[in-house]
Amino acid sequence: MPGGRKRKTTGKREPKRAEFKTEAEYSKAWQRWRETRDSNNESVKRSRQAAKEKRLEHERLYQQRKQENTQLEALVTELKGEVTFLSKVLKNPESLDADERRRLQQLVQEANGNGALDAVGSNDDVGDDINDTDSA
Fold this sequence. Notes:
Elements: H1 23-91, H2 98-114, H3 123-135
């Protein structure tokens, strides 16, 4: 080696005995290399475990949101049906059949229970309007 300096082993490869003048230098370098490798191996293990846990958490959230979306889609379908029904009630109430009249009566009763119609007027008036439709 030029200048009589020994080569410093900062590389990541395992040190070789031939690279050192004494057994003590080699032993010290190899021990340092081994500690570095063990530390790195533990770090890799922790990193892979953390990545696995993160993947599992993402999968759990995905499944949870997928289930919520299915429930919300069913609710949207149900509410679209109600909107269609209520549009029919408002546009052409005399065309309601007996089942639709019962459904409307049930909706009015539910609304009365929630007090939703109190701001508009008497809850009894709403029921009267439905009965007026029956006589038409």
